[in-house]
Amino acid sequence: MSFKVLILDNVNERCEEVFKERGVEVVRNHDLSGQELYDEIKSYHGIVVRSSTKVTEEVLEAGENLKIVGRAGVGVDNIDIEAATKRGILVMNTPNGNTISTAEHTCGMILALTHNIPQAVDKVKGGGWDRKKYMGNEVYNKTLGIVGLGKIGSEVTQRMQHFNMNIKAYDPFASVEQAERLGVELVELDELLGTSDFLTVHTPLTEKTKGMVSMENADKLKKGIFLINCARGGIYKEEDLPALIDEGYVAGVALDVYTTEPPTDELYEILQHPKIITTPHLGASTDEAQEKVAEQIAAQMADALEKKDFEGSLNGKSISLTTNKEVQPYLELAQKLGSIAIQLAPEHANEFSFEYSGACAKFSDVLTDSILKGLLSHHVSEAVNLINARHYAEERGLNIRETTASQSETFNDLITIRLKEDGEYQKISATVFGEKDYRIVEIDGFGIELGLEGDILMYKNVDKPGMLAKVSYALAKQEINIASLSLGRTMKGTNAITAVSVDKKMTEEELQPLYDLEDIHALQYISLPSNQD
Ligand SMILES: NC(=O)c1ccc[n+]([C@@H]2O[C@H](COP(=O)([O-])OP(=O)(O)OC[C@H]3O[C@@H](n4cnc5c(N)ncnc54)[C@H](O)[C@@H]3O)[C@@H](O)[C@H]2O)c1
Ligand SMILES: O=C(O)CC[C@@H](O)C(=O)O
């Protein structure tokens, strides 16, 4: 299949080159919005953006053929990931292509801020000369507080240590080992605010980070602190910044990012403050970073479109495993098992437990996605895939438990689904022999061996002579051929379970005579897709 990708923002030309090298048709059309964008996007399988294009639910809906949204950069706050996930559209970014540039920009901002460089440049260029007014401060031996010890925070740390700064950090997700390796002291946020001479933030904008510094918590700040934000607008409350400076809490502010970009008139006013220096979201704007993110996003998207690799995917992390040859047989097994389990399940079943034993256990995450795909395909009208399966499971209130064991007692690998009905668990287990021989091996304690393919009749009967003859006669009368069969029982003469594979899809009318047979109970008809080539 040939793929088409649309580049919507000002992404470096290496993006087109890489797509073309990979045989992907690529079109560039910048700054589209509204109806123009909805019309244009229809035929494309992928779109590439930076931060200008807002990839809203409406845009995704208009993208009838859309499979991937690629962000040439880190922040994906301009992409409605939830809506993309629901539609099974992959969202990817390039998490490290612009790390170095942004870290360098941050260090540049720290030095420019404390040495009053931008203000002094303006003065001299305007024909002035004032050495007293632009007296600065050294960073040497000062404390730099870092909020967010991720990729950029870590690179800033290493660079500013060479300026002999003492680095402290607040990051609830950072490990002590990581901090030790970097020579950073991990502290709580209040301590960081109260002891830092400079504070730089390197987190996404979230409910937790929004307004991290504002007039409300001004008393927590070390007097005369310098604030730097090269992450996302709004982490410092912008409208409070002039007052924080004028009232002596803050010595100066450096901003590369704003809540609205370009800044609104109101925000523009704030930026006129002589102690606030600014750049127009330039952190990642270097030739090197832009080449890297452009190349990376094109290569990642081409790989994903060809289903070779899913590196950089944000809303389908576990699907990157699907390119691993080892996981492929289990994926199909899991999906088939999900499909059969839901066909055997009573209506409204919503409590499931998935058990993985043996080598397959290490892939449990993606196997759960695959079971859910099989299970939900029967209930959800939209296309369910590995990206959106968990979303639909949650939306439908399915309660899922997952357990793993490194070994199975009976088979090399075993996947079992239990579903709860009237307080009792029904159980179905399956395994794969070789690469594609998928078999159910147990249903509700009955050992059975049944290929997981095609059209299957499954029923319970009393274990006595003549039962199979009745069924085969009812089928033969309708000229329906039996392909294979499997019998299972717990004890001679008690209950038995029988599975009969037939050579054609059966209609309700054809099934009726079988439902009417005496001593044949709980007859169910299951249809499974053929094994993939
Ligand atoms: N100015 C630019 O041009 C530019 C360029 C690249 C990235 N960015 C932005 O910089 C930010 C950081 O990027 P990164 O690549 O380092 O990301 P990252 O994911 O590597 O690091 C983010 C860190 O923030 C931490 N974190 C999350 N919530 C937190 C909280 N409430 N308190 C403290 N720490 C928290 C995470 O644990 C993580 O370590 C992102 O917002 C990104 O969009 C801006
Ligand atoms: O595309 C850009 O220049 C913005 C980059 C940056 O904000 C990011 O999050 O990667």
TrEMBL record:
<dbReference type="Pfam" id="PF02826">
    <property type="entry name" value="2-Hacid_dh_C"/>
</dbReference>
<dbReference type="InterPro" id="IPR036291">
    <property type="entry name" value="NAD(P)-bd_dom_sf"/>
</dbReference>
<keyword id="KW-0520">NAD</keyword>
<dbReference type="InterPro" id="IPR045626">
    <property type="entry name" value="PGDH_ASB_dom"/>
</dbReference>
<dbReference type="InterPro" id="IPR029009">
    <property type="entry name" value="ASB_dom_sf"/>
</dbReference>
<keyword id="KW-0718">Serine biosynthesis</keyword>
<dbReference type="InterPro" id="IPR029752">
    <property type="entry name" value="D-isomer_DH_CS1"/>
</dbReference>
<dbReference type="InterPro" id="IPR045865">
    <property type="entry name" value="ACT-like_dom_sf"/>
</dbReference>
<dbReference type="GO" id="GO:0004617">
    <property type="term" value="F:phosphoglycerate dehydrogenase activity"/>
</dbReference>
<comment type="similarity">
    <text>Belongs to the D-isomer specific 2-hydroxyacid dehydrogenase family.</text>
</comment>
<keyword id="KW-0560">Oxidoreductase</keyword>
<comment type="function">
    <text>Catalyzes the reversible oxidation of 3-phospho-D-glycerate to 3-phosphonooxypyruvate, the first step of the phosphorylated L-serine biosynthesis pathway. Also catalyzes the reversible oxidation of 2-hydroxyglutarate to 2-oxoglutarate.</text>
</comment>
<feature type="domain" description="ACT">
    <location>
        <begin position="456"/>
        <end position="528"/>
    </location>
</feature>
<dbReference type="InterPro" id="IPR006236">
    <property type="entry name" value="PGDH"/>
</dbReference>
<dbReference type="GO" id="GO:0006564">
    <property type="term" value="P:L-serine biosynthetic process"/>
</dbReference>
<dbReference type="InterPro" id="IPR029753">
    <property type="entry name" value="D-isomer_DH_CS"/>
</dbReference>
<dbReference type="Pfam" id="PF00389">
    <property type="entry name" value="2-Hacid_dh"/>
</dbReference>
<dbReference type="Pfam" id="PF19304">
    <property type="entry name" value="PGDH_inter"/>
</dbReference>
<keyword id="KW-0028">Amino-acid biosynthesis</keyword>
<dbReference type="InterPro" id="IPR006140">
    <property type="entry name" value="D-isomer_DH_NAD-bd"/>
</dbReference>
<dbReference type="InterPro" id="IPR006139">
    <property type="entry name" value="D-isomer_2_OHA_DH_cat_dom"/>
</dbReference>
<dbReference type="GO" id="GO:0051287">
    <property type="term" value="F:NAD binding"/>
</dbReference>
<protein>
    <recommendedName>
        <fullName>D-3-phosphoglycerate dehydrogenase</fullName>
        <ecNumber>1.1.1.95</ecNumber>
    </recommendedName>
</protein>
<comment type="pathway">
    <text>Amino-acid biosynthesis; L-serine biosynthesis; L-serine from 3-phospho-D-glycerate: step 1/3.</text>
</comment>
<dbReference type="InterPro" id="IPR002912">
    <property type="entry name" value="ACT_dom"/>
</dbReference>
